[in-house]
Amino acid sequence: MIQKPKGTKDILPNETYKWEYVEENTKEILKNYGFGEIRVPVFEQTELFERGVGDTTDVVQKEMYTFLDKGERSITLRPEGTAGVVRAYIENGMASMPSPIKMWYMMPMYRYENVQKGRYREFRQIGAEILGTNSYEADVELIVMADQIIKKFHVPEVSLNLNSIGCPTCRKQYTEVLKGFIGNNLAQYCSTCQTRFEKNPMRILDCKEKKCKELNQGAPIILDYLCEECKTHFENVKKALEQLDINYVIDPNIVRGLDYYTKTVFEFVSEKEGYTVLAGGRYDGLVEELGGQKTGAIGFAMGEDRLIDIFEKYNTSSTITARTPDLYIASMGEIASKKAQILALELRKSGIYVETDICERSMKANLKYADKIKSKYVCVIGEDEINTGKAKLKNMATGEEQETELKTDAIIEIL
Ligand code: ATP
Ligand code: MG
User: Where are the beta strands (DSSP E) in 79-180?
Assistant: First the structure.
């Protein structure tokens, strides 16, 4: 039997309701903050990610699904959303639209990962981006929105970790100090980190290798090297979050996996699972890097698979369930069967979830099936019911039966 590729999953009809719940509730919040949906291609030119994500990142160095298409073009399945969204922003001249532009997306991503808990090769992200503002207030609005989304799902022990990674100006001095620190032990770092040393030493702090993590203990932190502008920006963000009662902890170790981040970076981390559920930051350098005008921007991406995993595991107060039928109509004989179909059609048009027999089951099998699919009411229509124009609706939870006219309005009144 052919099996699904490693690191992918099938989401079956009896579990999609959880995904719908998360997606609908998140969308609602995104809309209240004025974000509009953007949809971009699943594949892009490889160069977009090399430049937009950064060629010293894990994503580009190790994780991309890249192939040549039949026209010999190098194509990559999108490993993240921001690069494609920014490309679309530039390509569609969105810079000349009223600014800032606020966009959200809900898209599957592809990364060739070491598959483990919370780490898949196809996974889904819900992301949000604000383009066209340098103000710290954009950072605050975005973080507050992320916080509202996370809190909406009542998952305990998810904490907001915050850091600033400065701008190219402050990073220059910091990079020198960091290289001094790492340089002492460079030979002991993994080979990927060794290649990062000259090009992008900060990336070494984001390495997942155990050995490198140990070596990084006690490394100098960028917060101590922020320039005046970055320092003020970060202070303003923190102050505003405090005024809005948003709890956070400063985590100087967040450098983020992607190259284009500047200033504020943040992660919502599940302490119970030890992984990040939502991560983001400012990326003031990206639009220019991809050929647009210099543009202040900030965004985040939430790992939907991880959110749903912890939602299922830890949200004990949740009462959401898959939708079950309001009514099952079982019929005997051809005339009754026609009547069942007409009633079902009318009720469905009125927004009622109705099931009828489409397997030519016996009456006994019909009733058993209605029970199995947890229909709230069952109605049996036979010759008598057709003659009298009346039937009984049985409430499956209480066993109570109520007589009704075989008419849409009368039935709806009972349901
Ligand atoms: P990590 O450090 O865990 O590898 P990252 O920096 O690669 O994360 P981002 O690119 O910032 O992650 O992605 C944002 C979010 O998307 C993550 O916080 C996580 O919730 C989710 N995510 C990233 N990679 C995966 C994956 N392979 N499987 C499932 N979810 C993922
Ligand atoms: Mg990663």
Answer: 101-110, 122-131, 158-164
What are the phi and psi torsion angles at 278 (to 5°)? -145, 135
Which residue's alpha carbon is at the smallest distance from atom 24 of ligand 1? 119
Q: Which of 109, 115, 209 to mutate to test the pocket of ligand 1 (most atoms within 8 A of CB)?
A: 109
Tokens matching residue 205: 């702090």
Containing 32, the helix (H) or strand (E) segment is helix 16-32
Measured from the Cα of 256, ligand 1's closest atom is 6
Contact (CB, 8 A) for 86 and 48: no
Say what the pTM is.
0.93
The closest ligand to the CA of 79 turns out to be 1
Q: What are the pLDDT tens digits along the chain (415 aa)?
A: 999 999 999 999 999 999 999 999 999 999 999 999 999 999 999 999 999 998 888 899 899 999 999 999 999 999 999 999 999 999 999 999 999 999 999 999 999 999 999 999 999 999 999 999 999 999 999 999 999 999 999 998 999 999 999 998 888 889 999 999 999 899 999 998 998 898 888 889 888 889 999 999 999 999 999 999 999 999 999 999 999 999 999 998 888 766 678 999 999 999 999 999 999 999 999 999 999 999 999 999 999 999 999 999 988 777 888 899 999 999 999 999 999 999 999 999 999 999 999 999 999 999 999 999 999 999 999 999 999 999 999 999 999 999 999 999 999 999 9
